[in-house]
Structure of Rho-GAP domain-containing protein:
Amino acid sequence: MNGLHEEGIFRINGSQNRTLKQELEKLFHLYYNNSSRESTEEIFTVLNKYNIYDICSVLKQFIRELPDPLLTQDLLEAFILVPKITDFLQQIQVLNLLILLINDSHRNTLEAILYLFNDIANHEQLNKMTVNNIATIMAPNLFPDLALKKRSKQMEGMKEMESIMERAKDSFYITKTLIFNHLVLFHVPPYLIAQIQRRRK
């Protein structure tokens, strides 16, 4: 099974199969408690029982329904403000620091998912999924609108609609930027290491 080549991966909806979801959750815990060759083989045995669209639908559902969003509730609003920064390099620096503030389990999951999205985009000639396509689909899952809904109760009409559209645009931009720059966002930046080393002297 090479899902990277499947046209419309993550775009075409599959079945949100409850059995598949339960099996994947079980395998997730198995792998993280024992990342052996046997557990890896068991994961592929289960995955090969389902089509790629079902697996992607369950993954989107998993991300969307996390009790604490992947970018974490505490940092979600900080992420959504990044597009307001006019300098792109400063945007990357801020995203880098925000990601380093995320707890280990969420950060590791985010890194793996962004790596997957980038890999999918690298096969866009076969799967027809560009970074823009992926960001459009995944942004609502990475940026659930819980906080917006609370605020929108106090808004009316056009103002509320403008706020929703602005948030959608910003969440798309951040998701796209995370995918494009995932290789540099999960490491402590050199300038910060240099500052720490200077303080130790």
